[in-house]
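## Example record

The block below lists the input lines for one assembly entry, exactly as stored, with component labels intact.
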Amino acid sequence: MSVIADAPTKRGSRFSTTRSRRSALQGWAYAAPTAIFVLVLFVIPLLLVFQMSGSNWPLLSGNQGVNFPSNYQKAVTNRFFVDSIVFTLKYTVLATVLLIGLGLGLALLVQESSRWKGFLRTAFLIPSALGLASASLLFYVLYSPFAGPFAELMKSWGFTFLGTPNGALFSTVFLIVWRFAGFYMLLILVGLQGIPDEVYEAARIDGASRRQTFTWVTLPLLKPTLALATVLCVTGSLLAFEQFYILTKGGPDNSTITVVQLIYNVAFQGQNDLGIAAAISVIVLVALVIINIAQIRSFRRAPEES
Amino acid sequence: MTIASRRQDRRMLSIGSLLLRTPYWVLTGGLALIFLYPLIWTAVSSVAPKAGTSQVNGWGFGNYVTLGNYQAGIVQYFANSVFVSLLTVVLTLVISLLGGYAFARFRFPGKNLLFLGTLAILMVPYATVLIPLYVILTAVGLQNTLVGVALVMTMFQLPFATFMMRIGFESIPRELDEAAMVDGASSFGALWHVLIPAVKPSMITVGLFAFLAAWNDFIAPLILINDSDKFTLPLAVANLRVQVQGIVDYGATEAGVVVLALPCIVLFLVLQRHYVRGFLSGAFKG
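Predicted structure tokens for the full assembly:
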């Protein structure tokens, strides 16, 4: 029916205008639930967060009027603001490099289909089915100096996983790699399978070695996939929350507070100030948009340069 | 590297080349072990005897009993999680089914804007809209309710779900629904009788992702739910750790992780094909 509406003929033009109007009405009717959800639960909150960031807005008493730019001043002078940004960036770089590298490695490892490789794929993917909170709780026990499988070892060698700032960071990164490596493997695997066989065949006829094929054929053709994986990974890592909330509670010595954890703490733990939390949210939002645009641009430019 | 050369490799397999491939078996076997060990250890440890847990002597389900009796009872938390997850799955399926149909088959003003607006949800950090969502849900009386949590979860599922359903519908030849409409079916009749059976695989993928997301989500219930008897399972298990005078009950936590993870792992293993389809569709490129 929409085909008829899409291509009105001269003879039936009036007929088809009513048709296309009806089609438009029906289209809107079917799209209405989506529109309502996007409007009420996404667009309005997005506008509201800007308003809140410029208003005095305590958790319990609600909007107390405009106080711009006080929230932003309080946000940037919060004693954990700079630390949390530095820590989140450090964590993001570490997690992204490891996850994309390992995801690519695993994808290459299980590329062809065989029974063993099918098993490996499933084994690497199973942690992705777990929630981040479940995985964090699981590693909370694994890393425990009392109940974990390494408890005896920790006692006799005198080390802890979560006791020092660096230990806590690396232990959390390990958890994240365990949980997400399969996800990125699958994403990259799909990209690899999108590379036509003929291209490899041509490289083989030209006498390219395995390494040459990888560097000059696989990697360039995989670039869009790697770009997508990197953007997803950076976005996800910058918003890290559960893993640190559950594993480290921001400790030891407040060394593992992420930006989202700071938002949560300011809004609901102690300070109870939604205005300042909204101001940090806006800063994160703007920063993330800039970072993602920069990433997409650099990935787009790169192939022309090389 | 290529499939063709691999096939050649396989033909040349002999005991000698098998031995040469020992490092390969050790590497891949070791990797598989790293990924599976934490899960297996937790499952075994949750029923193994350990001092300081509810399972001190011999093997058994003592930790699960403690877990079962935690505060409102694990049955309550389990039911809360099931409710939120099922409501999210149903809402996501209904909305994305209708939305996908609209985007794939109809022309209407504002169509592209709405589609891009839906995908834009992916671009905006979860946490940055949770603060205003808290305010909005409070205003309409849905803060501190499981329905409110399900609505928020549904909204975050919409970009992926709408995209999946749209390409699901677009991959079906238009002749199929047009034939039904020529036969006198309404556009809804064509959707209901002809198209839904055809897009079923996409719906399974959408439902699976929605379930996993809702079942596992932590931050939305953490922020939106105050009453402990309305906690979802992840929240309850996380809180359980600090149950008795600040002493962590590791045994019950292990049992909690098993209860949390098991449905996801079973669903994943059964529906792995549909999980992979979510990646093949390119939906993450939205």
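The first helix of chain A runs from residue 2 to 6. Residues 1-13 of chain A have pLDDT under 50 and may be disordered.
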